[in-house]
Amino acid sequence: MPIPRTLDQDFFKTWSPEMAYVLGFFAADGTMIANKRGAHFIEFHITDKHLLFQIRALLGSNHKIATRIEHNPRHKTGYRLQIGSKEIFNDLLRLRMTPAKSLTLRLPRISKTLQKDFVRGYFDGDGCVYFAFLKCADRKKPRPVFQSIFTCGSRLFLEELLRLLRRHGISRGTIRTKKHGFDLLLSYRDSLALFHLMYDTVSATGLFLPRKYKIFRKAIKTLYPNAVVV
Q: What is the pLDDT of residues 21-67, one digit of tens each?
């Protein structure tokens, strides 16, 4: 017999730190599908399986998490959670998510107190942080490089995101065009502000990717040894 599926159909109806985080992650790595038979699906894609289990639990779901084995050894194994729900599909439409949203994504209207959770969710899906020491021909000592990047196919979304970030202590930020989409690049001082925005209160939900957090923390403790790091 098929296993009865469970789901909190109202999850995206009420704002909360958890909902804002999951919406941010969905904006980065989610998909909406409406097929010709009238079925409506949402999907989450990720290489960090433990986070997908957390998201599934928040959604009150027992849907199967599928594994996608990569034949290219340079690529990580991927995981997918697919959920059929016209109600959640329509709720996401109201939150400015759309099918094929990679080129049309817009920033949802989010209260200031929950913006940090949305930003962290999006960053965990389509953001990266980089810290290394680079050797330069004109310097005796390697130069530290600390930067964070948000990626999106929609330039308009990144412009809206940058305006939001500037209300939280990010002073600059540069949007650059790449072969497939756009990057929002933050330098080391703005990356420090981003760290505090995303992680200072993260213990309230426990929703974050440890591997990205650890890179931030290593960079800050190296560059700013007197800084307070949560």
A: 999 999 999 999 998 888 999 999 998 999 999 999 999 999 999 99
Angle at 107 between CA 130 and CA 34, to 5 degrees: 105
Which contiguous run of DSSP H or E holds residue 136? none
Alpha-carbon dihedral 116, 98, 80, 11, rounded to 10 degrees:
60
- Work out whether strand 143-152 and strand 65-68 pair parallel, antiparallel, or are unpaired: unpaired
Task: Enumerate domains of the chain plus CATH numbers.
Answer: 11-100 (3.10.28.10), 117-223 (3.10.28.10)
- In angstroms, the Cα distances linking 96 to 33, 58, 84, 101, 166 are 15, 21, 19, 9, 21
Q: For residue 208, give the amino acid letter.
A: F
Q: Are 99 and 33 in contact, with CB atoms under 8 Å apart?
A: yes
**Residue where the block lists tokens 């999106």:** 152
- Report the half-sphere exposure of 36 (CA within 13 A, side-chain side): 0
Q: Is the pTM of this model over 0.85?
A: yes
204: Cβ–Cβ under 8 A, 6 or more apart, which residues? 17
Q: What is the DSSP letter of 230?
A: -
